[in-house]
Amino acid sequence: MTMATTPAAAAGTWLLGGDLPVTRMGYGAMQLAGKGVFGPPEDPDRARAALRKAVELGVTHIDTSDFYGPYVTNEILRDTLSPYGDELVFVTKVGARRDEQGNWLHWLDPAGLRQAVEENLEHLGLDRMDVVNLRVGETDGAAQGSIAAGFEALAGLREEGLIRHLGVSNVTAAQLDEALAIAPVACVQNMFNVWSRNDDALVDRCNEQMIAYVPYFPLGSAFQPMGSTERLDGVAAKHGVSVHQVALAWLLHRSPAILVIPGSGDPAHVEDNVAAAALRLDLDDLAALEGTAG
Length: 294
What we know:
Oligomer: single chain
Distance between the termini: 40 Å
Low-confidence stretches: none
Strand content: 5-15%
Number of strands: 11
């Protein structure tokens, strides 16, 4: 199937960085790792089947990181999909690492960022990363402070040819300004979903500046769990779909700059998520969902 006819392409495409066409319905590879995003998956065959299902349904935007596992997710991607099709675009993130207990630690010094980029390339089996996001802040959201040193380090790796485009994750509007003063920004990856909309203004700004906005935790998480589903239940019943599909479809309707990256290690869940790309919400649906924000 061509991108124009795949289920994942039903919500349209976006030129990431201005030159990389991706389906707005993407796939987040985090859940290919084990419990707590640490170690191998309990069922490696099912994890690989979930990944293959995403690609079969036409997903071309795959979000990953070497600190998922660590290394596990990228190795599954390489072993399952390599040699890669030209249509696949891989987006990773650096700025953190895991210790032996699975804790998340900052890793933002220039030497560490270079090592992280090189290890992502090695474990994915690539010569150049399509997009690398600088992940800052804390696990549950952005934090104040300068990101210039880390972003300058990645901009240097871009000049060397190891990275095609740069992005930022867990940032404030001021930190995005700081990054843009250093180098072009292809995407912003922040927490945003139908229940948590603190980034509303930043979503609109990204659309105006042709910067992709990629919400992580699009369905909530342990840090920001799914909120009330009463209004989503009504919309879901009207369309005969799942609440998760409504939440994903709302994001796709919220702004043309939004790219969604729901993740799952279950092929059936992947199919359910991708089906949200074809869900068309009407004005009554969108008005009803306005009341879901916390």
